[in-house]
Recover the amino acids of this structure.
């Protein structure tokens, strides 16, 4: 039994070193300059120890430069570093079809990294980013403003109706959830979010990562989907009816490209095809 236990520990260590090595290799290709590379490589390693060890610099701000001279502001916590890994190293939000979204709504914007990546990758004209955490939203504004991205960051949660909702911050910055905690935040319906866009308010892409709140959002009034061309979603299967939500979107007229099929780290993607020409993306009607 002792030998078996030691073998399991060794296997976990080998797996840990393999994953960390792969992330550091990707960091070298993404970062600009040795200073940014060494800072990110160190933080990737530290992030795996944060659940077990308290470091003096936890949640302290740091800045790195990445591809195309983009400057990323983040904090030393697992949530921010996981977001860098997911968005910039794994390119989880790389779209599986050849489109260039101009109008984007980012639901669960966290510190703005997905909005920033989409803007730089696809040349977005306008982004509305929704984030209920005050501190996350503050950093998101800085990340978008300092990189000259045309974006509006709204301190709010998103849900089926307008109102107020309880929100719980988390030690890891990317897993705060509505419906819990003592702090109340504004909740906006998707119709209210879309009303902030120029008339008629059509959206090329909705990005969604809202920690289980997708269950209520996608089972309530779905009339807002008529104004959406495509969605890229990180579902939370332990918190929602994953197959049921996928079916709801397919019934609403979206073609489904499952996570991990476009590339190993890709998210679930839904796109509305032109009914008269399935090879083309649906386009909204031209206003008279």
């Amino acid at each position: 039994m002792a030998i078996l236990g030691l073998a399991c520990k060794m296997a976990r260590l080998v797996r840990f070193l393999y994953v960390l090595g792969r992330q550091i290799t990707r960091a070298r290709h993404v970062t600009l300059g040795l200073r940014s590379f060494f800072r990110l490589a160190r933080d990737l390693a530290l992030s795996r120890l944060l659940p077990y060890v308290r470091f003096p610099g936890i949640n302290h701000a740091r800045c790195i430069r990445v591809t195309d001279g983009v400057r990323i502001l983040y904090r030393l916590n697992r949530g921010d570093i996981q977001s860098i890994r997911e968005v910039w190293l794994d390119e989880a939000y790389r779209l599986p079809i050849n489109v260039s979204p101009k109008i984007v709504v980012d639901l669960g914007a966290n510190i703005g990294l997905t909005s920033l990546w989409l803007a730089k990758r696809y040349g977005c004209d306008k982004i509305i980013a929704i984030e209920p955490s005050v501190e996350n939203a503050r950093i998101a504004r800085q990340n978008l403003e300092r990189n000259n991205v045309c974006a509006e960051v709204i301190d709010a949660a998103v849900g089926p109706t307008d109102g107020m909702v309880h929100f719980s911050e988390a030690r890891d910055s990317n897993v705060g959830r509505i419906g819990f905690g003592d702090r109340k935040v504004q909740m906006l319906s998707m119709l209210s979010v879309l009303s902030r866009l120029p008339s008629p308010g059509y959206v090329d892409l909705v990005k969604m990562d809202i920690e289980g709140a997708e269950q209520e959002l996608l089972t309530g009034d779905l009339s807002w989907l008529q104004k959406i061309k495509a969605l890229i979603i990180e579902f939370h299967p332990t918190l929602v009816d994953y197959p049921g939500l996928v079916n709801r979107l397919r019934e609403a007229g979206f073609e489904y490209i499952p996570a991990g099929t476009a590339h190993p780290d890709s998210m679930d993607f839904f796109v509305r095809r032109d009914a008269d020409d399935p090879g083309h993306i649906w386009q909204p009607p031209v206003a008279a």
